[in-house]
UniProtKB/TrEMBL annotation:
It comes from the Bacteria. SUPFAM superfamilies: NAD(P)-binding Rossmann-fold domains. Signal peptide: none annotated. Residues 3-209 form the NAD-dependent epimerase/dehydratase domain. Gene3D superfamilies: NAD(P)-binding Rossmann-like Domain. This is Cholesterol dehydrogenase. InterPro entries: Epimerase_deHydtase (IPR001509), Lipid_A_modif_metabolic_enz (IPR050177), NAD(P)-bd_dom_sf (IPR036291). PANTHER family: BIFUNCTIONAL POLYMYXIN RESISTANCE PROTEIN ARNA, NUCLEOSIDE-DIPHOSPHATE-SUGAR EPIMERASE.
Length: 249
């Protein structure tokens, strides 16, 4: 088996490459950071520098040659940005990559989405995976919901390719440049982390490797969506110890 990992020079993608290589699985990795790509190559991955928003058919054909499974970790995740920027990276790039994957025989397509598409500024517990707010909180959430619609349409039209959507919540762990650094910045600025309801509210977080080890091989050959949650009943105060340990590692 050979796996293509997009967004491989970012936190989730880099952890995915490391996990796959530790399992002895052949990996082709793509991303924009060529310096990071050299580190991935040292792990035994085949690195192909690419910006998916500018990818053309001939490049995609080479990138997807011999690929059995595609882990689409690439995404524009900035808290700020224009609608055009989010649509280009998260919707259009996903559609084109999915179409090319189908055309060149990729059997499994794993699309990394986000539970931000549930967020509506209200407390929720046991959120159903098909829940959608009346209005998305920001352009990122809207674009990730739109990218999921793209995947559903591709799955309906192409039953020979198995599509899976994963929505990991608050990713943290090695190589994290988003979640833990923001908490550290908050600590530095305010002297503490502001916790929902003083730390009594339940929150969900996903360790990078747990996201990578999700078993999608047994899912039926139609599109499925899964939110990734930790064991129930985890409070922010309990998670704080986990985050601290992650910062020290």
């Amino acid at each position: 088996m050979k796996v293509l990992v997009t967004g491989a020079t970012s936190g989730l993608g880099r952890n995915a490459v490391e996990y796959l290589r530790h399992q002895g699985i052949s990996v082709r990795a793509t991303g924009r950071n060529e310096a990071m790509g050299k580190l991935l190559s040292k792990m035994g991955a085949e690195f192909v520098p690419a910006d998916l928003t500018e990818l053309v058919s001939s490049q995609a054909k080479v990138m997807l040659a011999g690929i059995d499974t595609l882990w689409h970790c690439s995404s524009f995740t900035s808290p700020w940005g224009t609608q055009q920027a989010f649509d280009l990276a998260n919707v259009r790039a996903t559609r084109r990559l999915g179409e090319w994957a189908v055309a060149w025989g990729v059997r499994n397509f794993v699309h990394i989405s986000s539970p931000s598409l549930y967020f509506d500024y209200h407390h929720h517990r046991d959120v159903q995976e098909d829940f959608r707010p009346q209005r998305f909180a920001n352009e990122f959430a809207r674009s990730k919901a739109a990218s999921e619609e793209v995947i559903h349409l591709l799955a309906q039209a192409n039953p020979n390719t198995r599509f899976t959507i994963l929505r990991p919540q608050s990713l943290f762990g090695p190589h994290d440049k988003v979640f833990i650094p923001r908490l550290a910045q908050m600590m530095q600025h305010y002297g503490s982390v502001l916790l929902p309801r003083g730390g009594s509210a339940l929150v969900d977080m996903t360790y990078y490797e747990n996201s990578g080890t999700c078993d999608v091989a047994r899912q039926p050959a139609t599109v499925r969506s899964f939110a990734l949650w930790p064991p129930p009943g985890i409070s922010p105060t309990a998670n704080r110890a986990r985050c601290t340990a992650s910062c020290r590692s």
